[in-house]
Write a structure and sequence with these properties.
Layout: E1 4-9, H1 16-30, E2 36-42, H2 47-54, E3 59-63, H3 80-86, E4 90-93, H4 96-101, H5 106-119, E5 122-127, H6 131-135, H7 139-150, E6 162-166, H8 180-198, H9 200-205, E7 207-210, H10 219-223, E8 230-233, H11 240-252
Parallel strand pairs: 1-2, 1-8, 2-3, 3-4, 4-5, 5-6, 6-7, 7-8
Helix pairs in contact: 1-2, 1-11, 5-7, 7-8
């Protein structure tokens, strides 16, 4: 059985002075749900405060991006070593907003993921199609390309620290959500493609999250699907009660 994983992606929200209260609230509201892996992925400036607040709780902390070089003249970037030193255990890589606004490509996703996994971080690698790509019947082609290029060179051993997040770009922040059947179809495609890349046995152990407007109201039916192992949560992760409600749904799935 794959342990469900619910990760909050705070995006560019929550100041360092507000971080402890949110993490503490999440930890208190979810302490009964020991069968779910709970992660808060925060802006880099919040990581240390989040780690301090999460210490001694079931909540882990991650970042929202990482550079592939260990150090150097990369103004504004953050390295794997910096994240580990601050206490982060996870990192989101290739989020659609990074692809859309900041020039992220399948190649840079691969370089970041390779560096993160080599350093011992758990890499949450995002894939997903736009509305235009879905309407053009290109879902499979887009997902397979992002998987094969973004995970190029990864081994079965790397899969132990890999999480995939399927984020239909057309369902992020729009209020639209893929139906459970639509989501399951793509999650199954992702697992099949993983099987081709790292072997079927390793692919079966990888958790695949749904990341397209999962909310308390739709979490249970999404998480009931065979290949949906959790959620990468945006807006609903910014309030302890709504985040906890999704985690409760995962605990009961």
């Amino acid at each position: 059985m794959r342990k469900k994983i619910i990760a909050g992606n705070w995006k560019m929200n929550v100041k360092p002075s507000e971080t402890a209260a949110l993490v503490t609230g999440i930890a208190e509201a979810t302490k009964a749900f020991t069968n779910v892996e709970i992660v808060c992925c925060t802006p880099a400036i919040d990581v240390a405060a989040a780690v301090a607040a999460a210490t001694g709780t079931q909540v882990s902390v991650g970042a929202e991006n990482v550079h592939w070089e260990a150090s150097g003249a990369y103004t504004g970037e953050i390295s794997t070593g910096m994240l580990l030193d601050a206490g982060a255990k996870y990192v989101i890589i290739g989020h659609s907003e990074r692809r859309q606004y900041f020039g992220e490509t399948d190649e840079t996703v691969n370089k970041r993921a390779t560096a993160a996994l080599k350093a011992g971080l758990v890499a949450i690698v995002c894939v997903g199609e736009t509305l235009a790509e879905r309407d053009a019947g290109q879902v499979e082609a887009v997902i397979v390309r992002q998987m094969k290029e973004g995970l190029k060179g990864l081994s079965a051993a790397d899969a132990a620290n890999l999480v995939i997040a399927y984020e239909p770009v057309w369902a992020i922040g729009t209020g639209r959500t893929a139906t459970p059947d639509q989501a399951q179809e793509v999650h199954a495609l992702i697992r099949r493609t993983l099987g081709e890349l790292v072997g079927v046995e390793a692919a079966e152990s990888v958790r695949i999250q749904y990341g397209g407007s999962m909310k308390p109201g739709n979490a249970a039916e999404l998480l009931a699907q065979k290949d949906i192992d959790g959620g990468l949560i945006g807006g609903a992760a910014l309030k302890a009660d709504s985040f906890a409600a999704i985690i409760e749904a995962a605990a009961k799935a």
